[in-house]
Amino acid sequence: MAQVAIKKRKGILGALAFVAVAIGLFWSLVIAPPDAYQGDVQRIMYLHLPSILTAYLSYFLVFIGSGMYLWKREKRDDLLAHSAAEIGVLFTALTIIEGSIWGRPTWGVWWTWDARLTLTAILLLIYVGYLMLRSLIEDENRAASAAAVLGIIGFLDIPLIHMSVYWWRTLHQPPSILRPDKAPWENVHPAMLTALAISFVGFLLLYFYLLSMRYRLGEMREEIRARRLDRGA
Amino acid sequence: MALLRESYLLLWKDLLLELRRRESLLTMFFFGTLLLFVFHFSFDLAPERVAEMAPALLWLAFLFTGTLGLAQLFQPERENHCLDALLLSPLDRGALFLAKSCLNLVLMIVVEIVVIPLFWILFNLRSWNLLPQLFLVTLLGTIGFCVLGTITSAITLRARARELLLPLVLFPLMIPVILATIRCMENVLRTGEFGDAIPWLRLLLSFDVIFLTVGVLIFDRVIEN
Amino acid sequence: MHIIVENLAKAYGLLWALKDLNFALKPGEFVAILGPKGAGKTTLLRILAGLVSPTAGSVKLDGATLSDGATALRTKIGFLTPADHLYDNLTVSENLYFFTSLYHQQKNSHAIDQALQQVNLADRADEYAANLSSGMKCRLSIAKWQLLEPELLLLDEPYGVLDGGGVDVLEKFLQGQCAMGRIVVVASHHVSRVLKLSSRAVILNRGRLTFDEIKQQPWPNFDKAFGEFLPQGETWRS
């Protein structure tokens, strides 16, 4: 019974995510006005910003899962970390692609080494490294421990990487929403803010939906393994 | 403190072994020097540009040399299952971390003390008076490398394709150190003093302190069976 | 030291190396662990030594488990695998110095010399461990544990590398350990040798405990249990 209830909840989550993303897309593409300077190209920000924010959320979850696993040694914490790392890598890669698509018409090039793009690329490298580490260690428990340590170190390093890269480079456009001198809503057309907010909600829902699917997949794998083990007893 | 005493014991053992076989030291030293020669042939540098490129080239050389050291860091423990012997004992795992980090640090410092002046000679640089400051920056950066590198070396100890995985995992995490040391050294070479580069020094120091602490606290999780 | 093993199990991948192990060890016992290859003897020893964590169940030494981070317990446990746990490029004395210091029982050169004399290695004190034969390395390990005096000593196949003199040294050492109320556990294929000194025999087969009895004379139960592993037609008589 519990299984059916969980499936139902996931189904609702998935449906909600779909709806929110759809509305967000509609709002972003149709209702929000084009940007005064950049024109329609700016609309990709409605995908780009939520993508990177969810990626950061993901890496925070990797950190939490890793820490809990090293403390309590429960498989489900390790599973959370692993799942969050995979989905995080997905969203990070998406962010980079979106950023690149935006960059081509705006700056004329597919890639620059400005602070934000560089940071995102470094994040991708770190967590791809995490996934590779897991796949290259054969013993499951050792792989989980090793990955958990890396998950903690990687996350602790992120602020340091931020600082160093930002000090080194700053030619990315100043964040239009988070400008320190003005309040967020004074800078931006309200419809754009709404579009961004809806997109963000949609992305969050989508993220949690994907995460729960991946987590469930891991749970099933573990169950199969436990059953095969018992049968071999 | 028991932690320091144990670290010292392990370090004594490792230095003694290193002095007898000199495997790591010689390979690292030779590799570092070799890289200088390769750089000279790869980059056709006008004399004015060499001073600009020096920090970056030196750090590239040290990164790769240090990675060699990291790959061989636990070699004595792989023979005769000595790692088991250490884990069997009441040894504080943090002491193992400190000892191994120190070992790699010592090896890298020995290499750096020779390679930096050698670079100055081979590339005809003049600013000999700036070497003390440059050594200081290099030392701080090397500490960061050894600390994070030891953790990485230990977690990849039993992975397949370990020689590839180690740099793959370590280098992205090293970016703050790479940026900080190179920018610091550039500033020193350009202006003759630290000046604007002080924030970079602080970043380096924070990096070293943070990961040294994390390493000591977390190493028992890293190295267990 | 009192040791209680409860429902101990260890799985590697999809196979159980050990399953449903339950037994207790008391001070002064000399336990022989016997069984065919792959029975799980080494795995059991490694778990008792704290080198490997069990998949299920527990090992309690005086009420505490090793995984509780009780490093103080580790000072009381010894593990002897012949020819292992020695640094090849340290000398014989340096190895002893290093390991005794590691256990916070640093010995001066006099104590080390004495220990080497007792295992007939005094003339090799300054030789690199790499240059020793496996029998000599085993004797060096014996010297090491003689100096450290662990309350639980585990030995994994010690007889294979020892010659007659080495066996004498080993047996004298092990008997001394038990006489002082410590526990000795030996896993071995050399059944008659190990049974000579042991007070109890345990048989592992495919990860399960199939026999556990105090030694007696005569011992028909053991003969029967052990005879199951011998080639067709052979029997065992103790």
Summarize the structure.
The complex is a heterotrimer of chains A (233), B (225) and C (238). By secondary structure, chain A is an all-alpha fold.
Strand order of the largest sheet of chain C: 5-6-7-3-8-9
- Largest interface in this structure: A-B, 30 and 32 residues
Principal-axes shape call of chain B:
globular
**Distance separating the two termini of chain C:** 30 Å
Q: What key phrases describe this protein's structure?
A:
B: mainly alpha; C: 238 residues; alpha/beta; Rossmann fold; six-stranded mixed beta sheet; three-stranded antiparallel beta sheet; 8 helices; globular
Write the layout of secondary structure elements.
The complex is a heterotrimer of chains A (233), B (225) and C (238).
Chain A: H1 2-31, H2 45-72, H3 75-107, H4 115-136, H5 140-168, H6 184-187, H7 190-231
Helix pairs in contact in A: 1-7, 2-3, 2-5, 2-7, 3-4, 3-7, 4-5
Chain B: H1 2-21, H2 23-42, H3 47-71, H4 75-78, H5 82-88, H6 93-122, H7 131-155, H8 162-173, H9 175-191, H10 198-223
Helix pairs in contact in B: 1-6, 2-3, 2-6, 3-6, 3-7, 3-9, 6-7, 6-10, 7-8, 7-9, 7-10, 9-10
Chain C: E1 3-12, E2 15-25, E3 30-34, H1 41-49, E4 56-61, H2 71-74, E5 77-80, H3 92-102, H4 109-118, H5 134-148, E6 152-156, H6 164-179, E7 183-187, H7 191-197, E8 200-205, E9 208-214, H8 220-227
Structure description:
Chain A is an all-alpha fold and 233 residues long. Chain A has helices spanning 2-31, 45-72, 75-107, 115-136, 140-168, 184-187, 190-231. Chain A has one domain (49-184, 204-231). Chain A contains seven helices and no strands. In chain A, helix 2 runs parallel beside helix 7 (190-231), helix 3 (75-107) packs antiparallel against helix 7 and helix 4 packs antiparallel against helix 5 (140-168). Chain A is globular. The model of chain A is unreliable at 171-185 (pLDDT under 50). With 225 residues, chain B is mainly α. Helix content of chain B is 83%, strand content 0%. Chain B has helices at residues 2-21, 23-42, 47-71, 75-78, 82-88, 93-122, 131-155, 162-173, 175-191, 198-223. The two termini of chain B are 27 Å apart. In chain C, the strands form two sheets. Chain C has a six-stranded mixed beta sheet, sandwiched between helices. A three-stranded antiparallel beta sheet of chain C has the order 2-1-4, with helices on one face. Chain C is globular. In chain C, a hairpin with a 2-residue loop joins strand 1 (3-12) and strand 2 (15-25). In chain C, helix 3 (92-102) runs parallel beside helix 5 (134-148), helix 4 packs across helix 5 and helix 5 runs parallel beside helix 6.
